[in-house]
Design a protein that fits this description.
Blueprint lengths: L8 E4 L2 E3 L4 E2 L6 H4 L6 H13 L4 E5 L10 H12 L9 E6 L8 H15 L5 E4 L11 H13 L5 E5 L3 H12 L5 E7 L6 H4 L3 H8 L2 E5 L22 H8 L4 H13 L4 H11 L3 E2 L6 H8 L8 H12 L14
Parallel strand pairs: 3-4, 4-5, 5-6, 6-7, 7-8, 8-9, 9-10
Antiparallel strand pairs: 1-2
Helix pairs in contact: 2-3, 2-12, 4-5, 10-11, 10-13
Length: about 325
Amino acid sequence: MNFIVESKIKVAENLYLSPMGCGTWAWGNRFLWGYEPEMDTQLQETFNLLVSQGVTWFDTGDSYGTGKLNGRSETLLGKFSKEYQGDHQSEIAIATKLAVYPWRLTPQSMINACEKSAQRLGRKVDLVQLHWSPAKYLPWQEKPLLEGLARLSNQGLVKAVGLSNYGAKNLLSAYEFFRERGVKISTLQVQYSLLSTYPFVKLGLKELCQQLDIKVIAYSPLTLGLLTGKYRDLNHLPSGARRGLFKQLLPAIKPLLLTLDAIASDNGKTMAQTAINWCICKGTIPIPGAKNPLQARENLGALGWRLSRGEVEELERVALGLNKQMIQNIFQTR
Protein backbone atom coordinates (compact mmCIF):
# COMPACT_ATOMS: atom_id res chain seq x y z
CA MET A 1 0.00 0.00 0.00
CA ASN A 2 1.34 3.41 -0.91
CA PHE A 3 -0.98 6.38 -0.52
CA ILE A 4 -0.27 9.86 -1.79
CA VAL A 5 -0.08 12.21 1.16
CA GLU A 6 -0.12 15.84 0.20
CA SER A 7 2.14 18.59 1.47
CA LYS A 8 2.09 19.44 5.15
CA ILE A 9 0.07 22.41 6.32
CA LYS A 10 1.86 25.08 8.33
CA VAL A 11 -0.25 25.95 11.37
CA ALA A 12 2.46 27.64 13.44
CA GLU A 13 6.05 28.73 13.00
CA ASN A 14 7.41 25.33 14.00
CA LEU A 15 4.39 23.07 13.56
CA TYR A 16 3.27 21.42 10.35
CA LEU A 17 0.31 19.03 10.15
CA SER A 18 -0.65 16.49 7.52
CA PRO A 19 -3.81 17.45 5.56
CA MET A 20 -5.76 14.82 7.49
CA GLY A 21 -5.26 13.75 11.09
CA CYS A 22 -6.75 11.00 13.22
CA GLY A 23 -9.25 11.62 15.98
CA THR A 24 -8.83 9.33 19.00
CA TRP A 25 -12.05 9.93 20.94
CA ALA A 26 -12.83 6.21 20.68
CA TRP A 27 -9.48 5.16 22.16
CA GLY A 28 -10.64 4.52 25.70
CA ASN A 29 -14.34 5.34 25.35
CA ARG A 30 -16.52 2.43 26.43
CA PHE A 31 -19.86 4.24 26.50
CA LEU A 32 -20.14 5.30 22.85
CA TRP A 33 -17.47 3.27 21.08
CA GLY A 34 -17.28 0.05 23.10
CA TYR A 35 -13.57 0.28 23.87
CA GLU A 36 -11.88 -2.57 25.71
CA PRO A 37 -8.15 -2.84 26.56
CA GLU A 38 -7.96 -5.91 24.32
CA MET A 39 -8.27 -3.48 21.38
CA ASP A 40 -4.91 -1.85 22.12
CA THR A 41 -2.95 -4.07 19.72
CA GLN A 42 -5.21 -3.08 16.85
CA LEU A 43 -5.03 0.55 17.87
CA GLN A 44 -1.24 0.43 17.78
CA GLU A 45 -1.36 -1.18 14.33
CA THR A 46 -3.70 1.62 13.28
CA PHE A 47 -1.30 4.26 14.60
CA ASN A 48 1.68 2.63 12.87
CA LEU A 49 -0.14 2.36 9.55
CA LEU A 50 -1.26 5.99 9.52
CA VAL A 51 2.17 7.36 10.42
CA SER A 52 3.91 5.13 7.86
CA GLN A 53 1.68 6.65 5.17
CA GLY A 54 2.30 10.24 6.25
CA VAL A 55 -0.75 10.91 8.41
CA THR A 56 1.39 11.97 11.31
CA TRP A 57 -0.77 13.89 13.75
CA PHE A 58 -3.34 12.71 16.24
CA ASP A 59 -6.00 14.65 18.10
CA THR A 60 -6.88 13.67 21.65
CA GLY A 61 -8.18 15.21 24.87
CA ASP A 62 -7.45 14.88 28.55
CA SER A 63 -11.10 13.91 29.10
CA TYR A 64 -10.98 11.06 26.55
CA GLY A 65 -11.51 7.69 28.19
CA THR A 66 -14.59 6.87 30.24
CA GLY A 67 -14.59 6.36 34.01
CA LYS A 68 -11.41 4.81 35.33
CA LEU A 69 -10.00 4.96 31.81
CA ASN A 70 -9.89 8.76 31.83
CA GLY A 71 -6.76 9.89 29.98
CA ARG A 72 -6.44 6.52 28.24
CA SER A 73 -6.24 8.02 24.75
CA GLU A 74 -3.26 10.18 25.70
CA THR A 75 -1.53 7.27 27.43
CA LEU A 76 -1.93 5.04 24.38
CA LEU A 77 -0.65 7.75 22.03
CA GLY A 78 2.36 8.21 24.26
CA LYS A 79 3.14 4.50 24.17
CA PHE A 80 2.57 4.17 20.43
CA SER A 81 4.64 7.22 19.46
CA LYS A 82 7.52 6.07 21.67
CA GLU A 83 7.56 2.56 20.22
CA TYR A 84 7.04 3.48 16.56
CA GLN A 85 10.03 2.91 14.31
CA GLY A 86 9.57 3.73 10.65
CA ASP A 87 8.93 6.37 8.01
CA HIS A 88 7.82 9.83 9.19
CA GLN A 89 8.78 9.05 12.79
CA SER A 90 10.19 12.54 13.34
CA GLU A 91 6.98 14.15 12.05
CA ILE A 92 4.62 12.70 14.68
CA ALA A 93 2.60 15.47 16.36
CA ILE A 94 0.05 15.26 19.15
CA ALA A 95 -2.75 17.77 19.68
CA THR A 96 -4.70 17.58 22.91
CA LYS A 97 -7.75 19.42 24.19
CA LEU A 98 -7.90 20.45 27.83
CA ALA A 99 -11.37 20.08 29.33
CA VAL A 100 -13.08 23.07 30.95
CA TYR A 101 -13.86 21.29 34.19
CA PRO A 102 -15.63 23.40 36.84
CA TRP A 103 -12.65 23.10 39.18
CA ARG A 104 -10.27 24.56 36.62
CA LEU A 105 -10.49 28.23 37.50
CA THR A 106 -6.98 29.67 37.26
CA PRO A 107 -4.22 30.00 34.65
CA GLN A 108 -2.13 27.57 36.65
CA SER A 109 -4.87 24.95 36.41
CA MET A 110 -4.40 24.91 32.64
CA ILE A 111 -0.64 24.72 32.94
CA ASN A 112 -0.97 21.84 35.39
CA ALA A 113 -3.43 20.05 33.11
CA CYS A 114 -1.11 20.39 30.13
CA GLU A 115 1.82 19.09 32.17
CA LYS A 116 -0.22 16.03 33.16
CA SER A 117 -1.13 15.45 29.51
CA ALA A 118 2.56 15.68 28.62
CA GLN A 119 3.35 13.12 31.32
CA ARG A 120 0.79 10.69 29.88
CA LEU A 121 2.15 11.32 26.39
CA GLY A 122 5.77 11.06 27.47
CA ARG A 123 6.50 14.14 25.36
CA LYS A 124 5.53 17.77 25.01
CA VAL A 125 2.09 18.61 23.69
CA ASP A 126 2.50 20.07 20.20
CA LEU A 127 -0.87 21.77 19.90
CA VAL A 128 -2.83 22.56 23.05
CA GLN A 129 -6.51 23.45 22.65
CA LEU A 130 -9.26 24.62 24.97
CA HIS A 131 -11.90 21.90 24.58
CA TRP A 132 -14.85 24.29 24.76
CA SER A 133 -15.83 27.75 25.90
CA PRO A 134 -17.69 28.18 29.20
CA ALA A 135 -19.29 31.37 27.81
CA LYS A 136 -22.79 29.85 27.85
CA TYR A 137 -22.86 28.95 31.52
CA LEU A 138 -19.85 30.36 33.41
CA PRO A 139 -18.41 33.20 31.30
CA TRP A 140 -16.05 34.51 33.97
CA GLN A 141 -14.20 31.17 33.96
CA GLU A 142 -12.93 31.67 30.42
CA LYS A 143 -10.26 34.37 30.65
CA PRO A 144 -8.18 32.69 33.37
CA LEU A 145 -8.11 29.52 31.26
CA LEU A 146 -7.13 31.42 28.13
CA GLU A 147 -4.43 33.13 30.17
CA GLY A 148 -3.12 29.68 31.08
CA LEU A 149 -2.90 28.71 27.41
CA ALA A 150 -1.11 31.97 26.64
CA ARG A 151 1.47 31.24 29.32
CA LEU A 152 1.99 27.73 27.97
CA SER A 153 2.81 29.28 24.62
CA ASN A 154 4.99 32.09 25.92
CA GLN A 155 6.95 29.69 28.13
CA GLY A 156 7.64 27.40 25.17
CA LEU A 157 5.80 24.47 26.70
CA VAL A 158 3.75 23.96 23.51
CA LYS A 159 4.31 24.75 19.85
CA ALA A 160 0.86 26.17 19.15
CA VAL A 161 -2.47 27.11 20.73
CA GLY A 162 -5.94 26.35 19.41
CA LEU A 163 -9.60 26.52 20.41
CA SER A 164 -12.52 24.14 19.98
CA ASN A 165 -16.30 24.63 19.65
CA TYR A 166 -16.00 28.42 19.41
CA GLY A 167 -18.36 30.57 17.36
CA ALA A 168 -17.45 33.83 15.65
CA LYS A 169 -18.19 36.18 18.55
CA ASN A 170 -16.22 34.21 21.12
CA LEU A 171 -13.44 33.54 18.64
CA LEU A 172 -12.94 37.24 17.97
CA SER A 173 -12.88 37.98 21.68
CA ALA A 174 -10.33 35.24 22.33
CA TYR A 175 -8.26 36.38 19.33
CA GLU A 176 -7.92 39.87 20.82
CA PHE A 177 -7.15 38.43 24.25
CA PHE A 178 -4.30 36.34 22.86
CA ARG A 179 -3.05 39.07 20.53
CA GLU A 180 -2.49 41.38 23.50
CA ARG A 181 -0.25 38.66 24.97
CA GLY A 182 1.68 38.05 21.77
CA VAL A 183 0.05 34.68 21.13
CA LYS A 184 -1.53 33.51 17.89
CA ILE A 185 -4.54 31.21 17.66
CA SER A 186 -3.32 28.60 15.20
CA THR A 187 -6.36 26.35 14.89
CA LEU A 188 -10.09 26.20 15.53
CA GLN A 189 -11.70 22.79 15.87
CA VAL A 190 -15.42 22.50 15.08
CA GLN A 191 -17.94 19.80 14.29
CA TYR A 192 -18.04 19.91 10.51
CA SER A 193 -19.28 17.52 7.84
CA LEU A 194 -21.89 17.25 5.11
CA LEU A 195 -24.41 16.76 7.92
CA SER A 196 -22.99 19.54 10.08
CA THR A 197 -22.43 22.63 7.94
CA TYR A 198 -23.59 24.98 10.72
CA PRO A 199 -20.15 26.41 11.58
CA PHE A 200 -19.62 27.68 8.04
CA VAL A 201 -23.15 28.32 6.77
CA LYS A 202 -24.66 29.88 9.91
CA LEU A 203 -21.67 31.17 11.85
CA GLY A 204 -19.46 32.35 8.98
CA LEU A 205 -16.39 30.76 10.53
CA LYS A 206 -14.71 29.89 7.23
CA GLU A 207 -14.37 33.52 6.19
CA LEU A 208 -13.44 34.69 9.68
CA CYS A 209 -10.75 32.05 10.09
CA GLN A 210 -9.32 32.91 6.69
CA GLN A 211 -9.19 36.56 7.74
CA LEU A 212 -7.44 35.71 11.02
CA ASP A 213 -5.16 33.04 9.48
CA ILE A 214 -6.60 30.26 11.65
CA LYS A 215 -6.71 26.73 10.26
CA VAL A 216 -10.04 24.91 10.73
CA ILE A 217 -9.94 21.35 12.04
CA ALA A 218 -13.10 19.37 11.20
CA TYR A 219 -14.02 16.82 13.83
CA SER A 220 -16.62 14.10 13.20
CA PRO A 221 -16.32 14.46 9.39
CA LEU A 222 -18.20 11.17 9.01
CA THR A 223 -20.93 12.15 11.50
CA LEU A 224 -20.33 9.29 13.94
CA GLY A 225 -20.33 6.87 10.99
CA LEU A 226 -23.55 8.03 9.30
CA LEU A 227 -21.66 9.02 6.14
CA THR A 228 -19.75 5.78 5.74
CA GLY A 229 -22.58 3.96 3.97
CA LYS A 230 -22.58 1.26 6.63
CA TYR A 231 -25.94 2.41 7.97
CA ARG A 232 -28.35 3.05 5.11
CA ASP A 233 -31.76 2.29 6.58
CA LEU A 234 -33.56 1.39 9.80
CA ASN A 235 -32.69 -2.28 9.32
CA HIS A 236 -29.01 -1.44 9.71
CA LEU A 237 -28.44 0.50 12.92
CA PRO A 238 -25.51 0.53 15.34
CA SER A 239 -25.90 -0.68 18.86
CA GLY A 240 -25.49 1.54 21.88
CA ALA A 241 -25.94 5.28 22.23
CA ARG A 242 -25.88 6.03 18.50
CA ARG A 243 -28.87 3.84 17.70
CA GLY A 244 -31.60 6.29 18.69
CA LEU A 245 -29.93 9.22 16.93
CA PHE A 246 -29.42 7.28 13.70
CA LYS A 247 -33.02 6.09 13.80
CA GLN A 248 -34.16 9.71 13.71
CA LEU A 249 -31.72 10.90 11.06
CA LEU A 250 -31.52 8.10 8.50
CA PRO A 251 -34.95 8.60 6.87
CA ALA A 252 -34.29 12.34 6.50
CA ILE A 253 -30.80 12.09 5.02
CA LYS A 254 -31.50 9.47 2.35
CA PRO A 255 -31.16 12.00 -0.55
CA LEU A 256 -27.66 12.87 0.64
CA LEU A 257 -26.60 9.25 1.06
CA LEU A 258 -27.78 8.45 -2.47
CA THR A 259 -25.91 11.43 -3.93
CA LEU A 260 -22.79 10.66 -1.91
CA ASP A 261 -22.89 7.05 -3.07
CA ALA A 262 -23.23 8.07 -6.73
CA ILE A 263 -20.38 10.59 -6.62
CA ALA A 264 -18.18 8.14 -4.73
CA SER A 265 -18.83 5.51 -7.40
CA ASP A 266 -17.97 7.97 -10.18
CA ASN A 267 -14.60 8.58 -8.53
CA GLY A 268 -13.88 4.95 -7.69
CA LYS A 269 -14.00 5.80 -3.99
CA THR A 270 -16.07 4.83 -0.97
CA MET A 271 -18.70 7.06 0.61
CA ALA A 272 -16.46 7.64 3.63
CA GLN A 273 -13.51 8.67 1.47
CA THR A 274 -15.72 11.03 -0.50
CA ALA A 275 -17.21 12.63 2.62
CA ILE A 276 -13.73 13.22 4.08
CA ASN A 277 -12.47 14.57 0.76
CA TRP A 278 -15.38 17.01 0.68
CA CYS A 279 -14.20 18.42 4.01
CA ILE A 280 -10.69 18.82 2.60
CA CYS A 281 -12.08 20.56 -0.48
CA LYS A 282 -13.91 22.99 1.83
CA GLY A 283 -10.58 24.05 3.28
CA THR A 284 -10.59 22.12 6.55
CA ILE A 285 -8.24 19.58 8.08
CA PRO A 286 -10.50 16.60 8.90
CA ILE A 287 -9.76 14.20 11.75
CA PRO A 288 -11.79 11.04 11.14
CA GLY A 289 -11.43 8.40 13.81
CA ALA A 290 -10.07 4.91 13.22
CA LYS A 291 -10.20 1.95 15.60
CA ASN A 292 -8.51 -0.63 13.37
CA PRO A 293 -6.24 -0.82 10.32
CA LEU A 294 -9.19 -1.45 7.99
CA GLN A 295 -10.77 1.88 8.95
CA ALA A 296 -7.39 3.60 8.73
CA ARG A 297 -6.84 2.31 5.19
CA GLU A 298 -10.24 3.56 4.16
CA ASN A 299 -9.56 7.00 5.62
CA LEU A 300 -6.21 7.14 3.82
CA GLY A 301 -8.07 6.68 0.56
CA ALA A 302 -9.52 10.17 1.01
CA LEU A 303 -6.08 11.62 0.18
CA GLY A 304 -4.27 12.14 -3.10
CA TRP A 305 -7.24 13.28 -5.18
CA ARG A 306 -9.94 15.96 -5.27
CA LEU A 307 -13.65 16.11 -5.95
CA SER A 308 -14.49 18.44 -8.80
CA ARG A 309 -15.93 21.84 -8.00
CA GLY A 310 -19.27 20.69 -9.38
CA GLU A 311 -19.28 17.60 -7.17
CA VAL A 312 -18.46 19.66 -4.07
CA GLU A 313 -21.30 22.05 -4.85
CA GLU A 314 -23.77 19.25 -5.62
CA LEU A 315 -23.09 17.51 -2.32
CA GLU A 316 -23.49 20.77 -0.46
CA ARG A 317 -26.72 21.63 -2.29
CA VAL A 318 -28.28 18.30 -1.34
CA ALA A 319 -27.00 18.54 2.24
CA LEU A 320 -28.45 22.00 2.75
CA GLY A 321 -31.79 20.86 1.35
CA LEU A 322 -32.29 18.19 3.98
CA ASN A 323 -35.02 18.52 6.58
CA LYS A 324 -32.62 17.45 9.32
CA GLN A 325 -28.93 17.75 10.04
CA MET A 326 -26.77 16.39 12.80
CA ILE A 327 -27.36 17.95 16.21
CA GLN A 328 -24.66 20.40 17.25
CA ASN A 329 -22.30 19.93 20.15
CA ILE A 330 -24.00 21.53 23.17
CA PHE A 331 -20.84 23.52 23.90
CA GLN A 332 -20.67 25.13 20.44
CA THR A 333 -20.99 28.89 20.92
CA ARG A 334 -22.04 31.57 18.49
